[in-house]
Every structure is written in C-alpha cells, then in structure tokens.
Amino acid sequence: ERIKRAEEKQRVTSQPGFPATRLRRTRMQDWSRRLVRENHLGVDNLVWPFFVMEGDGVRQPVESMPGVERLSIDLAIQAAREAAELGLPAIALFPYTEMGLRDAEASEACNPANLICRAVRAIKAEVPDIGIICDVALDPYTSHGHDGIIVDGEIDNDRSLEVLVRQALVQAEAGCDILAPSDMMDGRIGAMRTALEDAGYINTKLLSYAVKYASGFYGPFRDAVGSGAMLKGDKQSYQMDPANSEEAMREVALDIAEGADMVMIKPGLPYLDVLYRVKKTFGIPTFAYQTSGEYAMLSVGVENGCIDRNTAIMETLMCYRRAGADAIFTYFAREVAERLKAED
Ligand code: PBG
C-alpha cells in the first residue's frame, strides 16, 4: 500500500512543470491574492441609473425590480447628493412620462421643460459635481413604445433622426453632461455631433449605445418607464440580432468615426465576448449595461435564497471589468459604492 502511494506521488510530481509551478501558491493568503489580482473594481467604475417621475416627495416601487423606485425630482436631487457623497462619478436619468403626454411623434421629448430637463436643471443646481447622463431615445415619450417615429408602419430612420437631434439639443441645453443615444437609428451619432457643434455644445459628450441588442433583458426597464405595456411588436428592425458580433464591430467603428466619445455594449453578462472584442480592438472608453433584466434575475435569485447577494453582485461586476468595461451601468451602484466605502 505504502509503495503504491509513493509511486502515485512520483507519477503526479514528475508531470511537466510540477512542482515548479503550483498556481495555488499565490492563492493561499488574502494579501497574496490581492497582490496578484489582475483587475479591480472601484467606485469610479460605476454609474447609477435611476427613474424620475412627477410629484413632490413621491417614491414609487418598480414591481419587477425589487429595491428600485421611481423618484420625484426633489427625491432625485437627494439621491444624486448621496451618489456624489459616495464618490460615484455619474448618474443616468430615465423619465416616467405622464401617459397623457405620450404621442406618436414623441413631442414631449423635445419640450425644454419636460420632466427630464427639469430634473437635470434641478440636480445640476444642487449637486454640480456629479456627471449627468441622459438617454436619447423616444420610447418613454411615444404612444407606441418604440424608440423612433413610425411612418407607413415602419420605424423611419431619417424622420426619427430629426426628432432625436432635437431631443439631444434640448437635453444639452438643460445641462446634461453626457448624451447617450440608445435608439439604434443609423447615422444618429454624426447627426447629433454636428448639431451639438453648430449649437456651441462642443464639450457635451456622446456615449453611444453602439452595440445594443434586441434583448429579452430590458423588460423591467420598460415597466419602470411605462413603455412596456404600450409596445407594439418588437425592436428587431433597429436593435441588433443576438447572433451577431461582426456587425457589432461595424457599429462601433461607425460611431467612433461619427464622433462618439465612449461606446456602450448592452446587455452585459450574455455579451461579454462582444465587450472584450470591442475594448481590445478600439481601445475607446467602453461601458457596459447591467440591464434591468440582469438586475431582476439576480435580485429574485437572492430573494428566493438561491444566490448569495454580495458574492453574486461583486462577481458579476468584476467579470464586466475583466472583459474590458471601463464603467458599468448598474442598479446596484449605490449598494456597491457603500460596500466599497465601508471596506476602505
Ligand atoms: C431605451 C432604453 C432601454 C434601456 C435603456 N434605454 C430599453 C429598450 O431599448 O427597450 C434598457 C435598460 C435596462 O433594461 O436596464 N431605448
């Protein structure tokens, strides 16, 4: 028996590279793991998206996103202040537009006194040092829930561009720091960049949702902005086919040429291969969106006791970093920022 064991040990230890290489050596202690860690997650890598609504002192839970609420502007200011105190570099605002203000032309998107513009002005006045990111897309404003304008039963690219450019200018005027077109119309980055330059907004940044897939992971977001129930059909004629990644590279190349400062890959977790390729190929600031569906999956898994909350959240965010994300939009941003601060 002893001889057999000795022979077995001899067989194992004489394998090439062993024991010269024992990858477990550096894994043994916490300090050692920290010393060889290849990627880091900090508060600077997080963007906190939240939803604003009309009213005063109003907070309304979003049912499909446990722990997420729509906030009236006064409470949104408070949230922005907390975000700034936690060191979060930026927040992203999304409006819940009153149903009566939605129409086929998304007129309210271009109203300089609309909810989002008032929220931006109010937050800028009270919390000047946090970056504000606004979506450029028409779905919170249309009566049909699509991101563009419908002409003869189709989402009309060039007609949509006209409205999107006006929406972009109105939001820039309100003081939005980063415009984030998430509509997936062709040519919108170039059209917006030209319009911004012409209007003197030369420092307004464009974060293009260059690679946005027609995904099943946006459902809870559509509840949050109230567009889900109104949506007729799907978004496959403008958002990308999940089967494609060569096309993603073309989208990014075009948007960089048209003047994007940063690009977004969305959703996140199922598309880390695309994120990795984009970052490696273009080297441009590359963001990823941990979408509402990803948030809901994790939250519900945690609620059901199947998943450990902290471990799963920190792990997924680190995986985004490892794949190449410079920043991650996540509804967990405040919670994670608090944890990172406590660990400091
Ligand atoms: C609007 C928009 C969507 C999201 C961000 N901007 C939804 C969609 O395109 O249908 C999704 C965000 C999320 O799911 O968290 N165009």
Structural key phrases:
single chain, 344 residues, alpha/beta, TIM Barrel, eight-stranded parallel β-barrel, two-stranded antiparallel sheet, 12 helices, 12 strands, 42% helix, globular, binds ligand PBG, Aldolase_TIM, porphobilinogen synthase activity, lyase, EC 4.2.1.24
Can you give a write-up of this model?
With 344 residues, the chain is of the alpha/beta class. The protein has a single domain, classed as TIM Barrel (Alpha-Beta Barrel), CATH 3.20.20. It is built from twelve helices and twelve strands. The chain has an eight-stranded parallel β-barrel with strand order 1-4-5-8-9-10-11-12, surrounded by nine helices. Strands 6-7 form a two-stranded antiparallel ribbon. Helix 4 (115-126) links the parallel strand 4 (90-95) and strand 5. Helix 8 packs across helix 9 (272-282) and helix 9 (272-282) runs parallel beside helix 11. The longest helix is centred in the middle third of the chain and has 18 residues, at 157-174. It is globular. The mean pLDDT is 97. Bound molecules: ligand PBG. Ligand PBG binds at residues 135, 137, 139, 147, 182, 218, 221-222, 235, 291-293.
Number of domains: 1
Look at the helices and sheets and give the structural class: alpha/beta
CATH superfamily: Aldolase class I
Largest pleated sheet: 8 strands, parallel, barrel
Order of helices and strands: HHEEEHEHEEEHEHEHHEHEHHEH
The residue ranges in which pLDDT falls below 50 over 5 or more consecutive positions are none
Overall form: globular
CATH hierarchy, class: Alpha Beta
Over the alpha carbons, how many angstroms does the gyration radius reach?
A: 23 Å
User: In what order do the strands lie side by side in the largest sheet?
Assistant: 1-4-5-8-9-10-11-12
Strand content: 15-25%
Indicate the mean pLDDT.
97
Number of strands: 12
Helix content: 40-55%
